[in-house]
From TrEMBL, chains A, B:
Posttranslational mods: Topaquinone (TPQ) is generated by copper-dependent autoxidation of a specific tyrosyl residue.
Organism: Ophiostoma piceae (strain UAMH 11346) (Sap stain fungus)
Active site: D301, Y385
Catalytic activity: a primary methyl amine + O2 + H2O = an aldehyde + H2O2 + NH4(+)
Protein known as: Amine oxidase
GO BP, sorted A to Z: amine metabolic process
Occurrences of domain Copper amine oxidase N3-terminal (ranges): 97-198
EC number per UniProt: 1.4.3.-
Amino acid sequence: MAPPHPFDPLSPAEIEAVVSLVKKAHGEGLLFHVVTAQEPRKAAMTAWLAAPAVAPRPARVAEVVVISNPSGTVYDGLVSLDESKILSWEQLEGEQPIILMEELQHVEEVVRKDPAVIEQCVLSGIAREDMHKVYCDPWTIGYDERFGNKVRLQQALMYYRPDIDNTQYQYPLDFCPIYDGNKDAIVAIDIPKQRRPLQLFAPLDYHHIAQYKRGGFRKDLKPINITQPEGVSFGIDGNIVSWQNFKFHLGFNYREGVVFNNITFNDQGNERDLFYRMSLVEMVVPYGNPEHPHQRKHAFDLGEYGAGYMANSLSLGCDCKGSISYIDAAMPTRVGGVRTIKNAICIHEEDDGILFKHTDFRDDSTIVTRARKLIVQSIFTAANYEYAVQWIFHQDGTIEPNIRLTGILNTYVLLPGEDTHGWGTQVYPGVNAHNHQHLFCMRINPNLDGGHQNSVFLSDACASEEPVGSAGNYYGNGFYAKRTRLETTGEGATDYDWTTMRTWDMVNESKIHPYSGKAASYKLVSREVPQLLPKEGSLVWKRAAFARHTMHVTKYADDQLYPAGRHVPQTSGEPSKGLPEWIGDGKDSIVNTDIVLWHTFGLTHFPAPEDYPVMPAEPMMLLLRPRHFFLSNPVMDVPPSYSITPSQVLAKKDVYDATDKMSKLVVSSSGSCCSKL
Amino acid sequence: MAPPHPFDPLSPAEIEAVVSLVKKAHGEGLLFHVVTAQEPRKAAMTAWLAAPAVAPRPARVAEVVVISNPSGTVYDGLVSLDESKILSWEQLEGEQPIILMEELQHVEEVVRKDPAVIEQCVLSGIAREDMHKVYCDPWTIGYDERFGNKVRLQQALMYYRPDIDNTQYQYPLDFCPIYDGNKDAIVAIDIPKQRRPLQLFAPLDYHHIAQYKRGGFRKDLKPINITQPEGVSFGIDGNIVSWQNFKFHLGFNYREGVVFNNITFNDQGNERDLFYRMSLVEMVVPYGNPEHPHQRKHAFDLGEYGAGYMANSLSLGCDCKGSISYIDAAMPTRVGGVRTIKNAICIHEEDDGILFKHTDFRDDSTIVTRARKLIVQSIFTAANYEYAVQWIFHQDGTIEPNIRLTGILNTYVLLPGEDTHGWGTQVYPGVNAHNHQHLFCMRINPNLDGGHQNSVFLSDACASEEPVGSAGNYYGNGFYAKRTRLETTGEGATDYDWTTMRTWDMVNESKIHPYSGKAASYKLVSREVPQLLPKEGSLVWKRAAFARHTMHVTKYADDQLYPAGRHVPQTSGEPSKGLPEWIGDGKDSIVNTDIVLWHTFGLTHFPAPEDYPVMPAEPMMLLLRPRHFFLSNPVMDVPPSYSITPSQVLAKKDVYDATDKMSKLVVSSSGSCCSKL
């Protein structure tokens, strides 16, 4: 069997091999929190990519993070798969590894049996014998200064289901048990001063059984069938995907979910580098209710739980339509087995409307060409929320990260007549959905046109500095793109500016366009860029330093992947982990070197009843667009639907007609008026 | 035959009737620039809509604007179709009506024969006998203080085509003839101080013949077929379109193109008003090169040329895919005939990915429901540019205006080695594409929940005012939506603010949501909102007053439709027409009354070679989203693809499975690795 591509995720056999080596060396009583492929060292990897037949294959190394049971000691190690040996093994102090679904699931059992929790449930109005109707969403505690980070804690957000099929989020409870994973016990309960007993309003559920009771489903939606009788236009070879001049390695890990490596674009036979690596690397969801203990609700869904660990198994014709390829993901289980997430990634094409069109008004010559897009999708469920993360590739070289937020609001109980004080919204009687932000961090390591020598420029649309009436701007209409090169990591910390519709350009300054005289670049166009609303010096601000600015730029270093730190649960933010450590005094040059962009974008969500009991997807997108990169429009060789030149209009012949013969004309129901069909 | 709906465009027979009445009264020598239905007076119309069987049918009136030939006198009149008589007839002074395609097309003929133009062509390097290879895009002159607005002028942007099938925009000429429509002659030529002769580099054309010569089309795109074997989910009755609880009147006129009237939403049997009228009403495309005479390039494409007059005739399976309905548009010709734009509007549905999804991590209960969208599209060609304007309706009540910009850049000649000074980009040898903005103005007249009593609030995401460590914000995470009611038309002039991710909420303050306690609203989420870059006091700033702010709000008044004035060509901006006139001293109340929102959004475009010779479509979108309007999520009755409750997971039965059986699994080409399919 061929060796794995160095970027490949660990196979099930590799996970098993790593676990076996670790158990042999360190005993059976280990809980496996991370068993994942270490990102190949870049120097070795780029040498290999440049000459795979000649250069040594980069070392195949696994990262392993375990908790020793029952001591709770945490170890962080590296295991060589090539040499079948442990390369390093370090005991951590005051750092908590990523929390596992298995840990989360377990807390509900503990909570149901805990006498103090039962007492609180009774106080809330739940019968003692109904504890099987009590549920909790355990979250890592975030950080709670009363406990620090040497104990492994979860906070249990409490709910009730009168019936097993009821949505628990409509029956939140007002207290919050704290679970100690080392003791396997509830060690405290946060009880608010103002008590809010269970509010038992009629359920509003979203499953089909509930909808049947409300009168069933609408019957006026006719099916849309999407078929590709000749197959798809993309190819998959191992984890290498190629489509419409793009080629990339598609990886997947426990934490980031989908990872793109070595994205290239075949520019008329010349395979040009675009991005060495691109992925979502972190996110934070701060909630805006300042009352204790809601400040602890600020999930780092990637660093604390893992987009890979939480990935949905996607289903044919359900999460996507058309002709779809899937890739599975292999994850370790806590005891050291392998769990396969079937269909963790889906890959498919969609028609994308008009790619370009022009009609000459004087001679009726026309061209219209339809666009195609490739969608690589993974969906993860973070307790109540769903994140459908799509990476969309466009034929013109544009890459569009696109996220749809759906799922269910996090909720808290509200008394009749109680004021939310503006920190939340009563979306249903007794249900208070708190304000929150979803702030994602995308990490981009460009290697535009090879050489790993890129720079970043701010591009700001600015009016001419010269006044109206002056010789240089007499009519006052002059404007230009002001470009400012970011020189150091300190300067790299930059914010959006709507007044100039700021974009960030990643540039290879050595590749000058022969026509425009400007350097080859990709422009980041991103408009959903809320500021971090937790204040400077706040708990969230300290822990989520990446979110303090729209953009940070660092010089590439191996292992600098996670901007809120490698081990995120229970970090205090004193000092802030990750990005601030790497930026340090801010004096590192980021000019013409191997750079990494850390872009924070997202949404601020003030809930409304329309979001309840399940949220219609809220879309957001950003664009990475080639500028001065291609000699000309790179999609002129996409077959048009219709094309006719001026001379052909005159000659009435030789029209290029590839219009879609499957499309149908629909005659309107009345058809009476002369101006209708 | 039933009378037309009062919102209906004029039928061909009505246009003919109006022309005939006018000719009878005012003679044959008239040129018809506008023959269009007057928007019904709102008081009469709302009375009729409320009780169509009882209330009097609103008067059917046509607006007519003519130029008397050869005097050039302009008349603006109203004609009653009910009474077959002219209601008013006013002579205009210093106002120029909209320019017609017929006028534009004619200038090219004049230019080719004009001795002074021929002389300039020869100076540029064109043989005297090659004048048939000389082309021009005539634009209205905008405003030129040397000529004022009592003469009717066009500026001819000059190009050359070595071959009839070459794209002229790659061979721009450096001089600009000015055509006087009253004299039917070239009356001046603007000649730059620095001469730039024709730059005859090899052509780069976009039609299929040129692509054949470059090696033909890519062959790796497999067809995607989209079919609706059971038909479509929308209905069309006359101009009334209904789909998924939405209902609206779909109008079309010479100027705005598509117009929506009386948009309602059937909320569980209750037909609730949303918007009385919505459309694009104006746009301006200022170019950023301050050198004379480029300041005159700032097209008001709607007010000066008309999105309706310039509308493409759309083709089946070419501009759209699937099952498509079309609506034709009837326009007057200049001499008073009727021109039918076949398929001026297309209407079709598309699958829209996931509408909502949730999986419970503890019990594997799941629901996933797919979304559908309805797209109403019109595409217009403004000389070089194409604007594909889509109005997308979503099942959850969201309305998404979505515009794709494509077509060809406006270009000017550049000498070898010449510096663009940052005002443009050399996109191809000898071709300078100037910086420009596309600023659209959308007019929204909400009537949320009836009564025509709405207000507008700014909604700003703000951190709690209380400091970190204070009792009210101890952990510093408090944040809320600060809402500020705009009280007067003066206050209504507001700008975007990225630091608070500002939105504008249209609100019916009398309709309080029973759960949230907040008033029924639609939120405008719009992020592509560049500032007008021509400076305060500049020519463009004076003429395009609507673009000075992201938002203006006025009190509704009949006939206040066009924010840069009713007759836009050759306005001087002294004083500014339209919005500033209506806002006046800014003291009119806009609280709980019939209000109109004027929203400016768009793009600033710094050209790059990728945009040449034809531009891959650049997308932009905004959202109008219901908030506190529906009792709960309004799409729970959309049939899911898949739904299973917790009890069904346990019982392993009764799953709701309507997954798409047309979708196909694609097995990857290698299929070798265990973690792949």
